[in-house]
Amino acid sequence: MLERYVKKILQARVYDAARETPLSEARFLSKRLKNSIWIKREDLQPVFSFKVRGAYNCMAQLSEEQKACGVITASAGNHAQGLALSARQMGVKATIVMPRITPDIKVQAVKARGAKVVLKGDAFNEALEYALQLVEEKGYTYIPPYDHPDVIAGQGTLAMEVLRQHAGPLHAIFVPVGGGGLIAGVAAYVKYLRPEVKVIGVEPEDAACLKAALEKDRRVVLEQVGLFAEGVAVAQIGKEPFKICREYVDDVITVNTDEICAAVKDIFEDTRAVSEPSGAVSLAGLKKYVEQTGIEDEHLVCINSGANTNFDRLQHIAERTELGEKREAILAVTIPEQPGSFKQFCRVVGKRMVTEFCYRYADTEHAQIYVGVSVKPGGEDRLELVQALQSAGYPVIDLTDNELAKLHIRHLGGGRSPNAGDEAVYRFEFPERPGALMNFLRHLGQDWNISLFHYRNHGSAYGRVLVALQIPEGESGNINEYFDRIGYRYWAESDNPAYQLFLG
Protein backbone atom coordinates (compact mmCIF):
# COMPACT_ATOMS: atom_id res chain seq x y z
CA MET A 1 0.00 0.00 0.00
CA LEU A 2 2.77 2.46 0.87
CA GLU A 3 4.62 1.88 -2.40
CA ARG A 4 1.43 2.46 -4.37
CA TYR A 5 0.77 5.74 -2.55
CA VAL A 6 4.36 6.95 -2.85
CA LYS A 7 4.17 6.45 -6.62
CA LYS A 8 0.91 8.44 -6.71
CA ILE A 9 2.48 11.21 -4.60
CA LEU A 10 5.56 11.41 -6.85
CA GLN A 11 3.31 11.60 -9.92
CA ALA A 12 0.82 14.02 -8.36
CA ARG A 13 0.04 17.20 -10.27
CA VAL A 14 -0.26 20.05 -7.81
CA TYR A 15 2.17 22.80 -8.74
CA ASP A 16 0.08 24.36 -11.48
CA ALA A 17 -2.07 25.73 -8.64
CA ALA A 18 -0.11 25.12 -5.43
CA ARG A 19 3.40 26.24 -4.54
CA GLU A 20 6.20 24.71 -2.52
CA THR A 21 5.94 26.38 0.88
CA PRO A 22 8.89 27.09 3.19
CA LEU A 23 9.79 25.23 6.34
CA SER A 24 10.35 28.06 8.82
CA GLU A 25 12.40 27.66 11.98
CA ALA A 26 10.53 28.88 15.07
CA ARG A 27 13.50 30.37 16.92
CA PHE A 28 11.65 31.80 19.93
CA LEU A 29 9.67 28.62 20.45
CA SER A 30 12.72 26.41 19.92
CA LYS A 31 14.57 28.20 22.70
CA ARG A 32 11.58 27.96 25.03
CA LEU A 33 10.92 24.26 24.38
CA LYS A 34 14.61 23.27 24.20
CA ASN A 35 14.07 21.56 20.83
CA SER A 36 14.49 22.61 17.22
CA ILE A 37 10.94 23.50 16.09
CA TRP A 38 10.03 23.92 12.41
CA ILE A 39 6.72 25.13 10.97
CA LYS A 40 5.56 24.06 7.51
CA ARG A 41 3.95 27.21 6.13
CA GLU A 42 0.86 26.07 4.24
CA ASP A 43 -0.71 29.40 5.19
CA LEU A 44 1.37 30.78 2.28
CA GLN A 45 -0.52 28.82 -0.38
CA PRO A 46 -2.54 30.92 -2.88
CA VAL A 47 -5.71 29.94 -0.99
CA PHE A 48 -3.97 30.16 2.43
CA SER A 49 -4.42 26.42 3.01
CA PHE A 50 -2.91 23.05 2.00
CA LYS A 51 -6.27 21.94 0.57
CA VAL A 52 -5.42 23.18 -2.92
CA ARG A 53 -2.94 20.31 -3.27
CA GLY A 54 -5.50 17.53 -3.02
CA ALA A 55 -8.23 19.38 -4.90
CA TYR A 56 -6.03 20.11 -7.92
CA ASN A 57 -4.51 16.64 -8.11
CA CYS A 58 -7.94 15.02 -7.93
CA MET A 59 -9.22 17.26 -10.72
CA ALA A 60 -6.11 16.62 -12.79
CA GLN A 61 -7.00 12.90 -12.93
CA LEU A 62 -10.47 13.54 -14.37
CA SER A 63 -11.36 12.74 -17.96
CA GLU A 64 -12.38 15.53 -20.33
CA GLU A 65 -15.94 14.21 -20.17
CA GLN A 66 -15.98 14.47 -16.36
CA LYS A 67 -14.58 18.01 -16.49
CA ALA A 68 -17.19 19.04 -19.05
CA CYS A 69 -19.94 18.08 -16.58
CA GLY A 70 -18.59 20.60 -14.09
CA VAL A 71 -17.34 19.80 -10.58
CA ILE A 72 -19.03 20.14 -7.22
CA THR A 73 -18.10 19.69 -3.58
CA ALA A 74 -19.41 20.32 -0.09
CA SER A 75 -17.05 22.25 2.14
CA ALA A 76 -16.97 24.69 5.04
CA GLY A 77 -14.16 26.66 3.46
CA ASN A 78 -10.61 25.57 2.72
CA HIS A 79 -11.35 22.68 0.36
CA ALA A 80 -13.91 24.93 -1.34
CA GLN A 81 -11.27 27.57 -2.03
CA GLY A 82 -8.81 24.97 -3.26
CA LEU A 83 -11.35 23.49 -5.65
CA ALA A 84 -12.49 26.93 -6.87
CA LEU A 85 -8.92 27.92 -7.73
CA SER A 86 -8.21 24.53 -9.36
CA ALA A 87 -11.36 24.74 -11.48
CA ARG A 88 -10.51 28.26 -12.63
CA GLN A 89 -6.98 27.12 -13.58
CA MET A 90 -8.43 24.30 -15.69
CA GLY A 91 -11.35 26.27 -17.13
CA VAL A 92 -13.95 24.04 -15.44
CA LYS A 93 -17.24 25.23 -13.92
CA ALA A 94 -17.38 24.67 -10.17
CA THR A 95 -20.25 24.66 -7.68
CA ILE A 96 -19.54 24.75 -3.96
CA VAL A 97 -22.19 23.88 -1.39
CA MET A 98 -21.34 25.48 1.96
CA PRO A 99 -23.15 25.43 5.31
CA ARG A 100 -24.85 28.74 6.13
CA ILE A 101 -22.59 29.06 9.19
CA THR A 102 -19.44 29.31 7.02
CA PRO A 103 -17.41 32.44 7.89
CA ASP A 104 -18.02 35.18 5.34
CA ILE A 105 -14.31 35.50 4.59
CA LYS A 106 -14.37 31.98 3.13
CA VAL A 107 -17.62 32.47 1.20
CA GLN A 108 -16.31 35.63 -0.46
CA ALA A 109 -12.96 34.00 -1.23
CA VAL A 110 -14.70 31.16 -3.08
CA LYS A 111 -16.86 33.57 -5.08
CA ALA A 112 -13.81 35.67 -5.95
CA ARG A 113 -12.23 32.62 -7.58
CA GLY A 114 -15.17 32.20 -9.92
CA ALA A 115 -17.08 29.35 -8.32
CA LYS A 116 -20.83 29.31 -7.76
CA VAL A 117 -21.67 29.20 -4.04
CA VAL A 118 -24.80 27.54 -2.67
CA LEU A 119 -25.46 28.00 1.06
CA LYS A 120 -27.38 25.06 2.46
CA GLY A 121 -28.01 23.77 5.99
CA ASP A 122 -26.46 24.56 9.35
CA ALA A 123 -23.84 21.82 9.29
CA PHE A 124 -21.48 20.09 6.86
CA ASN A 125 -23.60 16.94 6.59
CA GLU A 126 -26.59 18.93 5.30
CA ALA A 127 -24.38 20.66 2.74
CA LEU A 128 -22.94 17.29 1.67
CA GLU A 129 -26.38 15.74 1.28
CA TYR A 130 -27.48 18.58 -0.99
CA ALA A 131 -24.26 18.43 -3.04
CA LEU A 132 -24.77 14.71 -3.68
CA GLN A 133 -28.39 15.44 -4.60
CA LEU A 134 -27.15 17.91 -7.25
CA VAL A 135 -24.75 15.25 -8.56
CA GLU A 136 -27.76 12.99 -9.19
CA GLU A 137 -29.91 15.74 -10.69
CA LYS A 138 -27.36 17.60 -12.84
CA GLY A 139 -24.56 15.10 -13.43
CA TYR A 140 -21.80 17.10 -11.75
CA THR A 141 -18.52 15.37 -10.90
CA TYR A 142 -18.04 15.26 -7.12
CA ILE A 143 -14.59 16.09 -5.70
CA PRO A 144 -14.39 14.86 -2.08
CA PRO A 145 -12.47 16.93 0.50
CA TYR A 146 -10.39 14.04 1.90
CA ASP A 147 -11.74 10.52 1.28
CA HIS A 148 -10.15 9.74 -2.10
CA PRO A 149 -6.73 8.32 -3.12
CA ASP A 150 -5.99 11.21 -5.48
CA VAL A 151 -6.80 13.78 -2.78
CA ILE A 152 -4.56 11.91 -0.32
CA ALA A 153 -1.74 11.79 -2.89
CA GLY A 154 -2.03 15.52 -3.50
CA GLN A 155 -1.79 16.25 0.22
CA GLY A 156 1.16 13.87 0.44
CA THR A 157 3.30 16.20 -1.69
CA LEU A 158 3.60 18.31 1.48
CA ALA A 159 5.57 15.48 3.13
CA MET A 160 7.75 15.16 0.06
CA GLU A 161 8.72 18.83 0.49
CA VAL A 162 9.34 18.48 4.25
CA LEU A 163 11.79 15.58 3.85
CA ARG A 164 13.61 17.42 1.09
CA GLN A 165 13.75 20.68 3.08
CA HIS A 166 14.86 18.95 6.30
CA ALA A 167 17.24 16.22 5.22
CA GLY A 168 18.89 15.81 8.64
CA PRO A 169 17.66 14.05 11.78
CA LEU A 170 13.94 14.41 12.38
CA HIS A 171 12.13 13.05 15.42
CA ALA A 172 8.47 13.66 14.54
CA ILE A 173 5.99 15.44 12.28
CA PHE A 174 2.79 16.71 13.90
CA VAL A 175 -0.24 16.80 11.60
CA PRO A 176 -3.71 18.32 12.16
CA VAL A 177 -6.48 15.77 11.64
CA GLY A 178 -9.98 16.39 10.32
CA GLY A 179 -11.17 13.85 7.76
CA GLY A 180 -7.68 12.38 7.54
CA GLY A 181 -6.56 13.17 3.99
CA LEU A 182 -3.50 15.16 5.04
CA ILE A 183 -2.18 12.80 7.72
CA ALA A 184 -2.77 9.80 5.46
CA GLY A 185 -0.69 11.37 2.69
CA VAL A 186 2.05 12.44 5.12
CA ALA A 187 2.17 9.03 6.84
CA ALA A 188 2.32 7.10 3.56
CA TYR A 189 5.25 9.08 2.20
CA VAL A 190 7.22 9.47 5.45
CA LYS A 191 6.89 5.88 6.61
CA TYR A 192 8.05 4.57 3.22
CA LEU A 193 11.15 6.77 3.02
CA ARG A 194 11.94 7.56 6.68
CA PRO A 195 10.18 4.94 8.84
CA GLU A 196 12.07 6.10 11.96
CA VAL A 197 10.30 9.49 11.86
CA LYS A 198 7.18 9.55 14.00
CA VAL A 199 3.93 10.76 12.42
CA ILE A 200 1.67 12.11 15.16
CA GLY A 201 -1.89 13.30 14.59
CA VAL A 202 -3.38 16.15 16.58
CA GLU A 203 -7.12 16.70 17.11
CA PRO A 204 -9.29 18.99 19.23
CA GLU A 205 -10.60 17.18 22.31
CA ASP A 206 -14.18 17.71 21.12
CA ALA A 207 -13.58 16.50 17.54
CA ALA A 208 -11.22 13.53 17.99
CA CYS A 209 -12.59 11.18 15.35
CA LEU A 210 -9.25 9.49 14.53
CA LYS A 211 -8.41 8.85 18.18
CA ALA A 212 -11.85 7.29 18.68
CA ALA A 213 -11.44 5.12 15.57
CA LEU A 214 -7.99 3.88 16.59
CA GLU A 215 -9.26 2.99 20.07
CA LYS A 216 -12.13 0.96 18.59
CA ASP A 217 -10.05 -0.29 15.61
CA ARG A 218 -12.89 0.79 13.35
CA ARG A 219 -14.38 4.04 12.13
CA VAL A 220 -16.91 5.56 14.49
CA VAL A 221 -19.23 8.56 14.25
CA LEU A 222 -18.91 11.10 17.04
CA GLU A 223 -22.25 12.09 18.56
CA GLN A 224 -21.23 15.74 18.80
CA VAL A 225 -18.38 17.74 17.31
CA GLY A 226 -17.00 21.00 18.69
CA LEU A 227 -16.56 23.68 16.06
CA PHE A 228 -13.98 26.09 17.45
CA ALA A 229 -11.42 24.65 15.02
CA GLU A 230 -13.98 24.22 12.25
CA GLY A 231 -11.38 23.19 9.65
CA VAL A 232 -10.87 19.89 11.50
CA ALA A 233 -14.39 19.51 12.93
CA VAL A 234 -15.24 16.14 11.38
CA ALA A 235 -17.43 13.50 13.01
CA GLN A 236 -15.93 10.46 11.24
CA ILE A 237 -12.48 9.78 9.81
CA GLY A 238 -12.47 9.03 6.08
CA LYS A 239 -12.60 5.39 4.97
CA GLU A 240 -9.54 5.55 2.72
CA PRO A 241 -7.43 7.66 5.13
CA PHE A 242 -8.19 5.26 7.99
CA LYS A 243 -6.68 2.34 6.05
CA ILE A 244 -3.35 4.18 6.19
CA CYS A 245 -3.70 5.79 9.61
CA ARG A 246 -4.46 2.57 11.50
CA GLU A 247 -1.17 1.08 10.25
CA TYR A 248 1.24 3.99 10.02
CA VAL A 249 0.27 6.79 12.42
CA ASP A 250 2.33 6.50 15.61
CA ASP A 251 0.08 8.41 18.01
CA VAL A 252 -2.79 10.89 18.30
CA ILE A 253 -2.76 13.80 20.75
CA THR A 254 -5.82 15.83 21.69
CA VAL A 255 -5.73 19.52 22.65
CA ASN A 256 -8.26 21.94 24.11
CA THR A 257 -9.42 25.37 22.99
CA ASP A 258 -7.03 27.26 25.27
CA GLU A 259 -4.04 25.27 24.02
CA ILE A 260 -5.02 25.95 20.40
CA CYS A 261 -5.31 29.69 21.08
CA ALA A 262 -1.88 29.72 22.71
CA ALA A 263 -0.46 28.02 19.61
CA VAL A 264 -1.99 30.71 17.37
CA LYS A 265 -0.01 33.26 19.37
CA ASP A 266 3.18 31.18 19.18
CA ILE A 267 2.96 30.98 15.39
CA PHE A 268 2.39 34.72 15.16
CA GLU A 269 5.35 35.57 17.39
CA ASP A 270 7.76 33.46 15.34
CA THR A 271 6.43 34.01 11.81
CA ARG A 272 4.00 36.98 12.01
CA ALA A 273 1.41 34.67 10.40
CA VAL A 274 -2.12 34.65 11.84
CA SER A 275 -3.14 31.01 11.80
CA GLU A 276 -6.72 29.81 11.89
CA PRO A 277 -7.45 27.56 14.90
CA SER A 278 -7.28 24.35 12.85
CA GLY A 279 -3.96 25.54 11.43
CA ALA A 280 -2.48 25.86 14.92
CA VAL A 281 -3.77 22.51 16.21
CA SER A 282 -0.57 20.68 15.23
CA LEU A 283 1.68 23.09 17.14
CA ALA A 284 -0.55 22.78 20.20
CA GLY A 285 -0.04 19.02 20.01
CA LEU A 286 3.72 19.40 19.54
CA LYS A 287 3.94 21.54 22.69
CA LYS A 288 1.91 18.99 24.65
CA TYR A 289 4.13 16.16 23.40
CA VAL A 290 7.28 17.97 24.57
CA GLU A 291 5.69 18.64 27.96
CA GLN A 292 4.56 15.03 28.41
CA THR A 293 7.75 13.32 27.19
CA GLY A 294 10.35 15.82 28.39
CA ILE A 295 12.39 15.39 25.20
CA GLU A 296 15.18 17.87 24.42
CA ASP A 297 17.50 18.62 21.50
CA GLU A 298 15.25 16.93 18.92
CA HIS A 299 14.01 18.24 15.56
CA LEU A 300 10.21 18.55 15.42
CA VAL A 301 8.00 19.70 12.53
CA CYS A 302 4.40 20.90 12.72
CA ILE A 303 2.11 21.96 9.90
CA ASN A 304 0.39 25.34 9.90
CA SER A 305 -2.37 24.06 7.67
CA GLY A 306 -4.26 27.31 7.05
CA ALA A 307 -4.86 30.98 7.79
CA ASN A 308 -8.51 31.53 6.89
CA THR A 309 -10.14 33.09 9.93
CA ASN A 310 -12.45 36.04 10.49
CA PHE A 311 -10.67 39.08 11.93
CA ASP A 312 -13.29 39.58 14.66
CA ARG A 313 -12.58 36.07 15.94
CA LEU A 314 -9.11 37.13 17.04
CA GLN A 315 -10.48 38.87 20.14
CA HIS A 316 -11.80 35.57 21.51
CA ILE A 317 -8.53 33.83 20.62
CA ALA A 318 -6.52 36.51 22.41
CA GLU A 319 -8.69 36.20 25.52
CA ARG A 320 -8.03 32.47 25.75
CA THR A 321 -4.32 32.59 24.90
CA GLU A 322 -2.99 33.35 28.37
CA LEU A 323 -5.04 30.47 29.76
CA GLY A 324 -3.71 28.17 27.06
CA GLU A 325 -0.15 29.06 28.01
CA LYS A 326 -1.07 28.57 31.68
CA ARG A 327 -0.03 32.17 32.29
CA GLU A 328 -3.32 33.24 33.85
CA ALA A 329 -5.31 31.87 36.76
CA ILE A 330 -9.06 32.53 37.02
CA LEU A 331 -10.19 32.39 40.64
CA ALA A 332 -13.33 32.90 42.69
CA VAL A 333 -12.28 34.39 46.02
CA THR A 334 -14.35 35.41 49.04
CA ILE A 335 -13.06 38.57 50.77
CA PRO A 336 -14.45 40.61 53.67
CA GLU A 337 -16.98 43.30 52.69
CA GLN A 338 -15.10 46.21 54.22
CA PRO A 339 -12.86 49.10 53.12
CA GLY A 340 -9.30 48.06 52.24
CA SER A 341 -10.15 44.41 51.51
CA PHE A 342 -9.02 44.51 47.89
CA LYS A 343 -5.75 46.20 48.89
CA GLN A 344 -5.08 43.45 51.42
CA PHE A 345 -5.96 40.82 48.83
CA CYS A 346 -3.40 42.32 46.43
CA ARG A 347 -0.72 42.12 49.13
CA VAL A 348 -1.20 38.35 49.23
CA VAL A 349 -1.14 38.15 45.43
CA GLY A 350 2.25 39.87 45.65
CA LYS A 351 4.07 40.95 42.49
CA ARG A 352 1.76 38.97 40.23
CA MET A 353 -0.33 41.19 37.95
CA VAL A 354 -4.10 41.26 38.43
CA THR A 355 -5.49 40.93 34.88
CA GLU A 356 -9.19 41.05 35.66
CA PHE A 357 -11.37 41.92 38.64
CA CYS A 358 -15.16 41.62 38.81
CA TYR A 359 -17.16 42.44 41.92
CA ARG A 360 -20.67 43.38 42.94
CA TYR A 361 -22.02 44.11 46.39
CA ALA A 362 -24.00 41.15 47.77
CA ASP A 363 -24.25 41.44 51.55
CA THR A 364 -22.72 43.35 54.47
CA GLU A 365 -20.22 40.67 55.51
CA HIS A 366 -18.63 39.03 52.46
CA ALA A 367 -17.80 39.92 48.85
CA GLN A 368 -17.41 37.35 46.08
CA ILE A 369 -14.81 38.43 43.50
CA TYR A 370 -13.96 37.00 40.10
CA VAL A 371 -10.27 37.67 39.55
CA GLY A 372 -7.68 36.92 36.89
CA VAL A 373 -4.02 36.83 37.95
CA SER A 374 -0.89 36.45 35.81
CA VAL A 375 1.14 33.41 36.83
CA LYS A 376 4.23 31.66 35.56
CA PRO A 377 3.54 28.88 33.03
CA GLY A 378 3.57 25.25 34.13
CA GLY A 379 0.90 25.27 36.84
CA GLU A 380 3.17 25.39 39.92
CA ASP A 381 2.86 29.15 40.40
CA ARG A 382 -0.91 28.91 40.09
CA LEU A 383 -0.99 26.25 42.82
CA GLU A 384 1.26 28.38 45.03
CA LEU A 385 -1.08 31.36 44.55
CA VAL A 386 -4.13 29.35 45.58
CA GLN A 387 -2.31 27.98 48.61
CA ALA A 388 -1.09 31.46 49.63
CA LEU A 389 -4.64 32.83 49.48
CA GLN A 390 -6.02 29.90 51.46
CA SER A 391 -3.27 30.31 54.07
CA ALA A 392 -4.26 33.96 54.40
CA GLY A 393 -7.80 32.87 55.21
CA TYR A 394 -9.46 33.45 51.82
CA PRO A 395 -11.88 30.76 50.54
CA VAL A 396 -10.79 30.08 46.93
CA ILE A 397 -12.19 28.08 43.99
CA ASP A 398 -9.96 27.67 40.91
CA LEU A 399 -12.08 28.36 37.79
CA THR A 400 -9.21 28.31 35.26
CA ASP A 401 -10.58 25.22 33.51
CA ASN A 402 -14.27 26.12 33.86
CA GLU A 403 -15.85 26.83 30.44
CA LEU A 404 -18.86 28.65 31.89
CA ALA A 405 -16.55 31.01 33.76
CA LYS A 406 -14.37 31.72 30.72
CA LEU A 407 -17.13 32.07 28.15
CA HIS A 408 -19.78 33.95 30.13
CA ILE A 409 -19.15 34.87 33.77
CA ARG A 410 -16.12 37.05 32.99
CA HIS A 411 -18.32 39.21 30.73
CA LEU A 412 -21.21 39.57 33.18
CA GLY A 413 -21.47 42.19 35.90
CA GLY A 414 -22.52 39.61 38.49
CA GLY A 415 -25.10 39.86 41.21
CA ARG A 416 -28.14 37.92 42.31
CA SER A 417 -31.81 38.66 41.90
CA PRO A 418 -34.06 38.03 44.92
CA ASN A 419 -36.95 37.38 42.52
CA ALA A 420 -35.23 34.75 40.36
CA GLY A 421 -36.52 31.70 42.16
CA ASP A 422 -36.73 28.21 40.60
CA GLU A 423 -33.94 29.07 38.18
CA ALA A 424 -32.46 26.43 35.90
CA VAL A 425 -29.30 27.44 34.01
CA TYR A 426 -28.22 26.13 30.60
CA ARG A 427 -25.38 26.87 28.23
CA PHE A 428 -26.11 26.55 24.49
CA GLU A 429 -24.30 26.55 21.15
CA PHE A 430 -26.26 27.39 18.01
CA PRO A 431 -25.33 28.06 14.36
CA GLU A 432 -24.09 31.65 13.98
CA ARG A 433 -25.45 33.69 11.07
CA PRO A 434 -27.59 36.84 10.60
CA GLY A 435 -30.84 36.37 12.50
CA ALA A 436 -29.56 33.32 14.36
CA LEU A 437 -30.03 34.84 17.81
CA MET A 438 -33.68 35.65 17.11
CA ASN A 439 -34.19 32.18 15.70
CA PHE A 440 -32.69 30.70 18.87
CA LEU A 441 -35.13 32.70 21.00
CA ARG A 442 -38.06 31.49 18.90
CA HIS A 443 -36.96 27.90 19.43
CA LEU A 444 -36.61 28.53 23.14
CA GLY A 445 -40.33 29.05 23.34
CA GLN A 446 -42.45 31.13 25.71
CA ASP A 447 -43.39 28.56 28.35
CA TRP A 448 -40.79 29.77 30.85
CA ASN A 449 -39.64 33.21 31.95
CA ILE A 450 -36.02 34.07 31.11
CA SER A 451 -34.30 35.43 34.23
CA LEU A 452 -30.74 35.61 32.84
CA PHE A 453 -29.42 35.81 29.30
CA HIS A 454 -25.88 36.34 28.03
CA TYR A 455 -24.75 36.18 24.41
CA ARG A 456 -21.50 37.40 22.91
CA ASN A 457 -20.47 37.15 19.26
CA HIS A 458 -16.99 35.61 19.03
CA GLY A 459 -16.78 35.77 15.23
CA SER A 460 -17.01 31.99 15.02
CA ALA A 461 -19.29 29.49 13.34
CA TYR A 462 -21.35 28.90 16.47
CA GLY A 463 -22.92 31.36 18.89
CA ARG A 464 -22.76 30.74 22.62
CA VAL A 465 -25.57 31.64 25.00
CA LEU A 466 -26.08 31.36 28.75
CA VAL A 467 -29.75 31.22 29.77
CA ALA A 468 -31.53 30.95 33.11
CA LEU A 469 -35.17 29.90 32.96
CA GLN A 470 -37.69 30.09 35.79
CA ILE A 471 -39.24 26.63 35.70
CA PRO A 472 -42.15 25.96 38.05
CA GLU A 473 -41.96 22.95 40.31
CA GLY A 474 -43.15 19.83 38.53
CA GLU A 475 -42.15 20.96 35.01
CA SER A 476 -38.40 20.42 35.23
CA GLY A 477 -38.69 16.85 33.95
CA ASN A 478 -39.85 18.09 30.53
CA ILE A 479 -37.07 20.61 29.94
CA ASN A 480 -34.32 18.26 28.71
CA GLU A 481 -36.74 16.49 26.39
CA TYR A 482 -37.73 19.88 24.97
CA PHE A 483 -34.11 20.95 24.43
CA ASP A 484 -33.30 17.63 22.76
CA ARG A 485 -36.04 18.35 20.20
CA ILE A 486 -34.57 21.77 19.44
CA GLY A 487 -31.34 20.04 18.39
CA TYR A 488 -28.81 22.57 19.73
CA ARG A 489 -25.86 21.43 21.83
CA TYR A 490 -26.46 22.32 25.47
CA TRP A 491 -25.09 21.80 28.96
CA ALA A 492 -26.94 22.02 32.30
CA GLU A 493 -25.01 24.50 34.46
CA SER A 494 -27.17 25.03 37.56
CA ASP A 495 -24.63 23.18 39.71
CA ASN A 496 -21.61 24.94 38.23
CA PRO A 497 -19.76 26.78 41.04
CA ALA A 498 -19.10 29.77 38.76
CA TYR A 499 -22.85 30.31 38.41
CA GLN A 500 -23.62 29.63 42.05
CA LEU A 501 -20.96 32.03 43.33
CA PHE A 502 -21.60 34.98 41.03
CA LEU A 503 -25.13 34.68 39.67
CA GLY A 504 -27.04 32.07 41.67
UniProtKB/TrEMBL annotation:
Pathways per UniProt: Amino-acid biosynthesis; L-isoleucine biosynthesis; 2-oxobutanoate from L-threonine: step 1/1
A Pfam family that the UniProt record links to this protein: Thr_dehydrat_C
Record keyword Repeat present: yes
Protein keywords: Amino-acid biosynthesis, Branched-chain amino acid biosynthesis, Isoleucine biosynthesis, Lyase, Pyridoxal phosphate, Repeat
InterPro entries per the UniProt record, alphabetical: ACT-like_dom_sf, Ser/Thr_Dehydratase, TD_ACT-like, TD_ACT-like_sf, Thr_deHydtase_biosynth, TrpB-like_PALP, TrpB-like_PALP_sf
NCBIfam families listed in its UniProt record: ilvA_2Cterm, PRK09224.1, PRK12483.1
Stated family: Belongs to the serine/threonine dehydratase family.
Subunit record text: Homotetramer.
Function: Catalyzes the anaerobic formation of alpha-ketobutyrate and ammonia from threonine in a two-step reaction. The first step involved a dehydration of threonine and a production of enamine intermediates (aminocrotonate), which tautomerizes to its imine form (iminobutyrate). Both intermediates are unstable and short-lived. The second step is the nonenzymatic hydrolysis of the enamine/imine intermediates to form 2-ketobutyrate and free ammonia. In the low water environment of the cell, the second step is accelerated by RidA.
The protein, known as: L-threonine dehydratase
Organism expressing this protein natively: Terasakiispira papahanaumokuakeensis
Gene behind the chain: ilvA
